[in-house]
Amino acid sequence: MGKAMVSPGLSELAQPVTAVGRGKVECLQKNRKKILFVTSELADLAKAGGLGDVSAALPRALGRFHSVRVLIPGYPQVISRGHPMEILCELEGYAGLPACQIGTMLLPDGLTVYVVLCPELYDRPGTPYGDEHGRDWPDNHIRFARFGLAAAALASGEVCADWQPDLVHAHDWPAGLAPAYMAWQGQRTPSVFTIHNLAYQGLCDLNCMPELGLPAEAATEQGMEFYGKLSFLKAGINYADHNTTVSRNYAREITTAEFGCGLEGLLKLKASTGGLTGIANGIDECWHPDSDSRHQWPDKKSNTRHVEAMFDLEPNDGPLFVIISRLVYQKGLDLIPQVAEVIIKAGGRLAILGQGEESVETMLTELAGRYPQRIGFHRGFNELDARRMFAGSDFLLMPSRYEPCGLSQSYAQCFGSLPIARRTGGLADTIKDGETGFLFDDSTAESFADAIVRATRVYRQPDLLEAMRRQAMNAPRYWHHAAKPYDKLYRKLINESLGKTGPAVRGSEHG
User: Fold this and answer.
1) Which residue range forms the structural domain that includes residue 214?
2) Is 263 inside a domain boundary?
């Protein structure tokens, strides 16, 4: 169809360019590849968790190496930002998947975002995955199959003939069918699939195969069959050319029965053949207090008093503990009532910010009621409040049962707040026990309490506390570090693909 103009919109962040040698920059520019990110979240537009942060920051960090564009579903949050959108084409329906349009937006910093426009699937209140009450949409398999099929169309050059990706990078289960549809269509464009959280697998019944237009092989162990169901996550793992996950330690953990969520055998095989890589997430440099031009950060004591006032906590000279988290089972927050007395006996206070499962919210509300002026809980999330809490706190509590990477521990370290966390996933990679924070081994109140006691002992030794704070503030890994291994991986896969198909199959973007 002809091009048309509509007026939805988005907002965007600045894309920093890191200084490297002039010759190296020119070499990178001449070898720029076209990379398509396929993600269900983008922090500036629609976000439910850490995936949105990664999907917003990593393409920008990769901008020094490649031409990166992002594909996202057309949720109301995406459509309502007020930026012009150009309609590129209409894609026909397929099996039980409705027709859709593909729109494109150019964001203020130059990042191009493609949007899958299908109001019957995406124009709904709530989160990207469910309603206002946290219930998953029953047709999520249709919603994200349509999304994956649109990604395959972009990969084939059907949508935008002058920008056909050299590689597709799909993220988590909502994008799992992108590499699968590409493979079933016989496409040779290489793909990467990143596992952000193995526990969310995107399951649906086998009888959904006809409406998703899946071939018979999809129902096999080598396809996406998973204990009598279909797993979008397994589809991504099996059909992508390479799998990554968000920390080195989590890449090891998911090959074990404890953390593998039933996919440990497949992931162990991928790892043994070099098909699974752990690449730690970074954080945006805007989180560093010295880089935050929006706010003038006062000293830690002033921020502490601000947090005390926010949560109606008793001002004293004891340690201030904070929790800033999604309130879900994964985060291990059921241990907090069991260690509350340890915190209070040390003269500490606890401020909690977050929202999530109703049962966890109720538990924390009741806990705050039992300890007025010592424990405070606010339901919700506000980034400025979170930053003031990181800046004003002495310790951040992260008793996660598992944590693929985690970002909050690095945010806290930027502000000299020492994380107290379980030794799991990316927490084990980003926290040095006794140097930049405190780690504990077991998901038990006893193990957690021991770490809190160690932390309070350090709090009473000002010189040691200050030394740990300085080390913590130097610890965070930023996105320009994380982008380099992705660049290396992309180039390897693209070169291998060209070697198999011949140089005429795919062109590079110059300049």
Assistant:
1) 4-16+29-246
2) no
Which residue has 């291998």 as its token pair? 496
Strand order across the 203-205 sheet? 203-205, 229-231, 225-226
Q: In whole angstroms, give the CA distance from residue 324 to residue 96.
A: 41
Helix, strand, coil percent values for the chain (each to nearest 5) = 40, 20, 40
Q: Of 397, 400, 410, 409, whose CA–CA distance to 451 is shortest?
A: 397
Is residue 47 marked as binding? yes
Query: Is residue 483 in a domain?
Result: no
Among 426, 454, 430, smallest CA distance to 440 is for: 454
Whether 23 is in a domain gets the answer: no
Span 36-89, pLDDT tens digits? 999 999 988 998 888 998 999 999 999 999 999 999 999 999 998 877 899 999
**Sequence-separated (6 or more) residues with CB below 8 Å from residue 35:** 59, 62, 66, 67, 68, 69, 165, 166, 167, 168, 169, 490
Strands 229-231 and 203-205: antiparallel
Tokens read off for 63: 């901008």
* Alpha-carbon distances of 329 from 50, 356, 361, rounded to whole Å: 16, 9, 11
Residues 34 and 158 placed together within one structural domain of the fold: yes
- 431: nearest Cα among 456, 400, 460: 400
Which pLDDT score, from 0 to 100, does residue 11 have?
26
Q: Do 296 and 222 have their domain in common?
A: no
Q: Which ranges in 431-478 belong to alpha helices (H)?
A: 445-459, 462-473
**CA distance between the termini of the chain:** 30
